[in-house]
Amino acid sequence: MCKYVKNIVKDSISVNGSETPKRASWGSPLEFILACLGYAVGLGNVWRFPYLCYRNGGGAFLIPFFLMIMIIGLPIFYLELYVGQYTALGPLKAFQSISPFFSGVGYCTLMVISMISVYYMIIVAWTLYYTIVSIIGNLEWGTCSNDYNTDFCYSGEYDSRCRENNTGTAADLTYYMRRCMSIEEICIMTGYEPYNDKYCMDGSETVLWYTNATRILASEEYYNQRVLGIGEATWENWGTIQWHLVGCLFACWVVAFLVVIKGVQSAGKVVYFTALFPYVMLTALLIRGVTLEGAGEGILFYLTPRWENLLSARVWGDAASQTFYSFGVACGSLVTLASYNKFTNNCHFDAVFVCVANFLTSIYAGFVIFSVLGFQADKMGVSVDDVAQQGPGLAFVVYPEALLQMPVPQLWCILFFFMLFILGLGSQFAGIEAINTAIVDRWPVLRKRYWMVTAFTCFVCFLLGLPMCFSGGVYLFTLLDWNTASWAILLIGIAEVTAVSWSYGINRALQDLETMNMKFNIVLRIFWKGVWLFAVPFASFAILIFVLVEWTPPSYGNYEFPLFADILGWAIGISTIIFFPLGVIWALYKGYRGMDLFRPTSDWKPAVAPSETEANTYDNLAYL
User: Which key words are in the record (predicted)?
Assistant: First the structure.
């Protein structure tokens, strides 16, 4: 104990004296690129983009999505890398030093990434649970014989048995109401007249036989009742704790702790696996998917352009929201990751590479998803439109049901869920690192006890995630997802760009980039000036208006949340931006007035000594 106290005292003396604990750095530029890639390429590329692409005009959606990347995603991505790399500071100190008026922006990003880290790990826990049961071979989501299954349960496996001897008439059988039932009987039961194996007669018009037939996938009932344990849970009745989710959540945080135990020094080695291995599994799933019956129809459904959709405001709004969602900007994580770079690292190349890779990965994942959805639609005898979903509905309901129809289903289930687990976990490392950096930047003495900081962060986040392990936990998860990674990050993104381009000055920023050996020709200078000064702020503000106009209260399935839950959601969103006005008040309290509010402080300076830069006669080229 005495030895421990002496070490703490020694560290404190080092910090207050001349020896500040040295800041860690990436082992190589490739580690940084892979860390950014692992952070940006996540579950959203797999379960959100393909659905948005199909819903918003197929291949035509790639045009607004690419444009939004160029005028919003890439500029903010690069700006955050520049701020972190130039100062070697986390977002809290970086934005506080660039302009006292924007002192609260860093704290806003910390609030956002903290909330995301808490609820996002719940998704990772779900994927771990599915991975474990797949390895065990307990694929219960394909059966309708469990206690929690309803009469409307539909199983593709059972349906295949019913369809074995079908001949293409109204007498053909399908699985409905827990037995093999003829299309003719279903038509009559749902108020129509029988016609053939695909249609019923509604007067003189034909309608698809399943129009009024309620069918709930067995995988959906498994996800809601077995995994989440929703039961009769509501906001007023939270239900019971689901211990299997608690165990998986704890295991996820233990893995995250072990990966980030030494910060970028340990995480930098793991990213080689977490960033690259998902591509191996995506490729394996794609090769298998395109060989399935009906895969071609699914891919055509995904990519066939509907150019008229480009005239819809919703298409452009979805493209912009997906850009923020996918790239993880305005959360502080990218500033943090870049702060561990060498001063002269070419983060311009890194930003462009990661953004292009993210864009192409989204398209690639769409082929993986829709090839299998086409197969699933063919098996069910419905349109691809009837099985296409996004979010957890795709990852834990539709896709798992389709995997069970493949040969060797256990293998494909293991590959798919393990891929989701790695994608989700890889996206978490940057968030944990951002929280840790905020702590050690505030108390530098803790850099020598970094593992303790990581343990504290992971344990607190684990405790905060426990309410989402109850029967009604998915409602809190939905509320956080609905209000955190939404309109708030748009405002934070606007504030970040305004702080650099308008308050600090676009010319100063470009000069800073030159000191880091990133010199641009006239075309690139015009581009970066244009997007940072005008495109990003105005486009983001336009998207904010669109999001607020199109806003709908949060819900889960058919359950509409009560008013107090909606109010709580708005409070969560406001809590992520409240630090901005508080930061302004703090700056005024500290005596900043007039233009001093918008001038950089003495803490805004290059991360290296002036003699180490090309122009070694200035303390800070930003002041030229």
Answer: Disulfide bond, Membrane, Metal-binding, Sodium, Symport, Transmembrane, Transmembrane helix, Transport
Decide: 195 and 201 in contact? Cβ < 8 Å.
Answer: yes
Can you give the pLDDT at residue 486? 80
Q: How many residues does the chain have?
A: 624
Helix (H) or strand (E) holding 109: helix 105-136
Q: Tokens in use for 488? A: 């708030």
Cβ-based neighbours of 597, under 8 Å, separated by 6 or more? 99, 100, 101, 584, 587, 588
Q: Is 160 annotated as a binding residue?
A: no
pTM surpassing 0.90? Answer: yes
Residue 37, amino acid: L
pLDDT in tens, 401-427: 989 988 899 999 999 999 999 999 999
- Is 521 a known ligand-binding residue? no
Q: Is 423 assigned a ligand-binding role in the annotation?
A: yes
Could you give the C-alpha distances from 243 to 126, 131, 222, 246, 250, in angstroms and in order?
A: 12, 17, 16, 5, 10
* 40 annotated binding-site participant: yes
Which of these, 151, 12, 48, 29, lies nearest to 390 by C-alpha position?
Answer: 48
Is the pLDDT at 317 greater than 90, yes or no? no
Q: Is 212 annotated as a binding residue?
A: no
* Closest CA relative to residue 453, chosen from 443, 465, 462, 466: 443
Yes or no: say if 328 and 334 are a contact pair by the CB < 8 Å rule: yes
Q: What is the mean pLDDT of residues 472-501?
A: 93
Residue 311 CB contacts under 8 Å (≥ 6 apart), including other chains: none
Dihedrals phi, psi of 9, to nearest 5 degrees = -60, -40
602 is in an annotated binding site: no
Residue 28, annotated as binding a ligand = no
Contacts of 223 (CB under 8 A, 6+ apart): 141, 392, 396, 397
Q: Within 13 Å of residue 324, how many CA atoms lie on the same side as its CB?
A: 26
The verdict on whether residue 45 carries a ligand-binding annotation is yes
Contact in structure between 324 and 330 (CB atoms under 8 Å): yes
Longest dimension (CA), the chain: 91
DSSP 3-state of 199: strand
